[in-house]
Amino acid sequence: MVVSSFEPAVLALAERLRARGQRLATAESCTGGLIAAACTSVAGSSDWFERGFVTYSNEAKVESLGVPAPLIAAHGAVSEPVVCAMAEGALVHSRADQAVAVTGIAGPGGAVPGKPVGTVWLALAQRGGATQAWRCRFDGDRTAVREQTVAEALRALLDALR
Fold first, then answer.
1. Range of the domain at 120
2. Number of domains in the chain
3. Given Cys at both, which of 14, 105, 124, 128 links 110, Cβ 3.0 to 4.6 Å?
């Protein structure tokens, strides 16, 4: 993945967060920190990027973000309840005002019935606001799924901050 390809979106995101005096946290599973890497690839990101959590394992989701283990057991890590808990946990465990979370199946393995490769859940949470979550189905190989997830996360953040 070429992080610089996301620079226009990141610069627009930076402008919107700075204008609001807000900071962002990320909680990432399938992208392994790529959203945070895209955000911090631009100079001055320390003004608005607070921190990133890479919680690839279920244990990391529980320990770092406070996602309830029974929630993961009941719904699976790639689910709406878990991605919402990840986004909300990123706010609880940071000083950020906005959080984005992603969890999915980038492939080539990992598919389960009802959750094919390319299934990704994303969530946005903001302090004092409602958490929004949605599911995407991306095509392509592992790299393509991860790149599309980063693009979708940035797009959603920009839309939310309009």
1. 3-160
2. 1
3. 105
What CATH number is given to the structural domain containing 94?
A: 3.90.950.20
Q: Match 């895209």 to its residue by tokens.
A: 38
> How many percent of the chain have pLDDT more than 70?
98
pLDDT tens track for 116-135? 999 999 999 999 999 999 99
How far, in Å, are 18, 49, 65, 151, 154 from residue 11 at the CA level? 10, 12, 27, 13, 10
* pTM above threshold 0.90: yes
Task: State how far the Cα of 82 lies from the Cα of 18, in Å rounded to an integer.
Answer: 29
Q: What would the two tokens of residue 162 be?
A: 């309009």
Distance CA 144, CA 162 (A): 27
- Long-range pairs, 2-9, Cβ under 8 A, ≥24: 3/34, 3/37, 3/38, 3/41, 4/41, 6/38, 6/41, 6/150, 6/151, 6/154, 7/41, 7/42, 9/38, 9/151, 9/154, 9/155, 9/158
Q: Are 122 and 102 in contact (CB under 8 A)?
A: yes
Q: How many CB atoms lie within 10 A of CB 3?
A: 15
